[in-house]
Amino acid sequence: MDRPGVMIPECPQSANTRCHSQNGEKSHSRTGLLSEIQTPIRTEPFSNIYSLIPGKELGRGKFAVVKKYVKTCTGKEYAAKCMKKRRKGQDCRLEIIHEIAVLELAKSNCWVIDLHEVYETSTEMILVLE
Hints:
With 130 residues, the chain is mostly beta strands. The chain has a domain at 41-129: Phosphorylase Kinase, domain 1, CATH 3.30.200. 10% of the residues lie in helices and 35% in strands. The protein has one helix at residues 93-105, and strands at 41-42, 50-60, 64-71, 77-84, 86-87, 90-91, 115-120, 124-129. The chain is globular and about 40 Å long. Its EC number is 2.7.11.1.
């Protein structure tokens, strides 16, 4: 539903972005989910870059856990949303990509948390949030 005064910006249109198809329209999967993202998905071990702050679980849902981590090289704290790629035997990677795309679209909105980085392991995707 549209709300007056609340705008979520579009991705910038350029040849270097992956959020638009070649004809300038947003790329959607057959399920209606956004399927193109700009944020690189990193595959190096998450634990080499971030350290868990013990006892700092920020939230828990059916398929994800959010915990507080610190980036080892900077000392800056982040929330990391660890999302299982398979749920009830189904591959849910596309739904996670959609969530990443939505966070990218809302990046400049002060009411939406910023996506910092994305990591992927064999079993989960980790969204590092500010």
